[in-house]
Amino acid sequence: MPGEGSNIDFKLEFDPGNAKGKTGIVKHIVAMANTGGGEIIFGRDEGKVLGLSPNTVKHLDSARLLDYAEKYVGKGAINLRHEIEALKGKKVICRIVVDPSVYPTVMAKDGTWSGMDKGDKPLFLRGDIWVRHGSKTERISQIDVNRIVDDAYEK
Q1: Where do the DSSP E strands lie in 23-151?
Q2: Confidence label for 154 from pLDDT (cuts 50, 70 and 90)
């Protein structure tokens, strides 16, 4: 399996009770969509395959994740699905497959560590556009804007 890059991201663990982690996944989904689509794979990293419990995986159901993400980007901005791969024992790997966005997806609402409490540090802000630069999820740069505009003119 290839390593992390623009279109693949590994998450060894997922804690559905961790608001920062859950909201952070939205940022990664949006960045993946804005960078041509790809996969976020839960339960493994480049060196280890731990898997996740089926109870944890139910929180990674694509319909649930999409509903959560749409709180921050609006309806119809992203498209995703999930695939489950069984491991030995009762553990599984969960792949979130993110389709590429036709237009850049912009955050419509601030996302914070614990879901918008006063004093929370924001993970992303309204108006942010996130992309993947190799294995990093980062705010859009001028170079990215130039590429998007150049690609649009070529079509």
Answers
A1: 38-42, 80-86, 92-98, 111-112, 122-124, 130-133, 136-139
A2: confident
